[in-house]
# Entry
Amino acid sequence: EFEQVRVSGLMTNAPYMLNVDCDMFVNEADVVRQAMCIFLQKSKNSINHCAFVQYPQDFYDSNCEELVVLQSHLSRGFAGIQGSIYSGSGYGSLSSVNARKFLDEESLARKFGSSKEIRKSVANALQRKSNSQNILTNFLDEAREVGQCQYESQTSWGKTIGWLYDSTAEDVNTSIDIHSRGWTSSYIYPDEPAFLGCMPPGGPEAMVQQRRWGTGMLEVLFNKHSPLIGIFSQKLRFRQRLAYIHIFTWGLRSIPELAYCLLPAYCLLHNSALFPKGLCSGITVTLVSMHCVYTLWEFMSLGFSVHSCIIDIIFKLLGVSRTVFIVTKKTFTETRSGTGDGPSCSADPNAGKFEFDDSVYFLPGTFIVLVNLAAIAGFSVGLQPLTHIYGGGGSTFVEACACILVVMLFLPFLKGLFEKGKYGIPLSTLSKAAFLAVLFVVFSVGK
# Structure
């Protein structure tokens, strides 16, 4: 991305630019006009105006699980505070965010590199001068120079200029830096997808991408741009700060989620109650009812009726309709009817299967499935310790249902136990998970 910015600054140095990730393409020709309408609106505060316009991430594969609730609710909530978070893909436009005072020749060289032409272009931009009608062919050699990765060595590229290098999640790192300077952003959610892209081809690539996102956001949480610091020095609004904390701690949620996935199995193996008994069961019923009402509200807010929601649930219970965990290839291999209108779904019968390898990323999921299966099997044959030595009631069918629910949530891993090849869990991963599961069962029963 830095190379593209430098080449663009050398060729035209326009005040606005369109950023499209390598795995995305523009699906709506009107995106530029929509973004420019936002930029060209008169702002009451010239210092605190819109820095960029963000579009939602959409995918051309109709089988993949789209981020409907995230984009239609969470992102719109962020946009109502200080602006949407820059998430890379579907990035509409960017204006000259960091206006700087005029710099001398030495400072320009130290910050922007050794290219005389790009320093000249930067100086014109800082003085708000438009570039003359350049003949682009005369700048090919300079463009090759500034487009090299080593050009940014010993410069401010990646530090205070362009996208920031402090984290593998450079998009949100740059986003919080922009908002910390007091700038705002806008979010456009058009009826037709403005940008379309593809997803990783299977389990290993998807897990690697998830790890990069999680670790990158944690890096931002603890670097100099962290929303936890700079309360008085940064111009980040309080609610926007909370929104960033919510995003950056996304990876940390895996720790309590892992504990919650193992808790029903532990209670079933230990023969202890997970949910309250007797009159206290009303608390559980109330919480479950609240969750069902909230789910129904989400379903209706997306334009569906109560009748369609009930029918959808019944179909899923009967197996007529099911939620399929699908990850698509990050390659544009086909087009609709060969017309070149865009990629379409492949006819591969294995397109809906999750792929595995011997990566450690699949160890926790396999471990969770084996533990819950062992707990269900133990409960079914009555292999549970007596409850009178512990006092109180033991585990019941409710705890067993909780274990079944956990297994269903990890359905791709359950299917991976019986599949072969790249669609099955490797023996090395299965052996490690089985060893950990045996230790967990022994610890739970003997505790």
